[in-house]
């Protein structure tokens, strides 16, 4: 592919992603997830996926849609607590899971993208992360079918560290606020999260962008991910239902004048929590 990396159709952009592929996916909770590309995989019914992502979405959005249809075979994640179907599949032996400390997961993706095969970290020393034994997969009866192996350790300057391997994947799916035709990306605020790291780890990275601009429109100093890490760019429309930005948990507080909770319409999956305001404080 030349310098113009734009593919107008999300389904076409993931058409060559095969069954059983490894896949790094950006986002944190539902923030910054490549939802249009996830829907494209759902439409193609691409299965047996080995997904590396901070989490697996919720039951009816994000990666949770692929999980619900049985299209994910293995997850490498740091947090999986918002998805009941995830818990059911994992405990029932239908899904394999490697739990990784969040900072370690971020560095494993970055290291893989930077060509670093492994690194030492203090995170997890003295826990089952180091000792092994955490269930990667269960038997249907709940017993352990596959357990995490112990990790190599080493002492540096009188402190113990674990050896962790860098992560590379066949594909990566990310979402950016702005992207140009050469694949240079800019992310909006906290939606940056795991997206640059996932993009670096993928051998073929597909970026859905909310605003497509021409090369040169993004000042070089404002590029947050260089186009060298991106092979395909897919523009998504703001009114595309598949590109909807959902909120995982909405937190509201009483209005300053009425004392009533201030809330806006949301999705059925949102859990709303009213946070009391102490008089005279915030």
From TrEMBL:
Keywords: Transferase. The keyword Transferase applies. Residues 252-282 are annotated as: Disordered. This is CoA transferase subunit A. Pfam families: CoA_trans. SUPFAM superfamilies: NagB/RpiA/CoA transferase-like. The keyword Manganese does not apply. InterPro entries: 3-oxoacid_CoA-transf_A (IPR012792), CoA_trans_fam_I (IPR004165), NagB/RpiA_transferase-like (IPR037171). PANTHER family: ACETATE COA-TRANSFERASE SUBUNIT ALPHA, KETOACID-COENZYME A TRANSFERASE. Gene3D superfamilies: Glutaconate Coenzyme A-transferase. One of its GO terms (molecular function) is CoA-transferase activity.
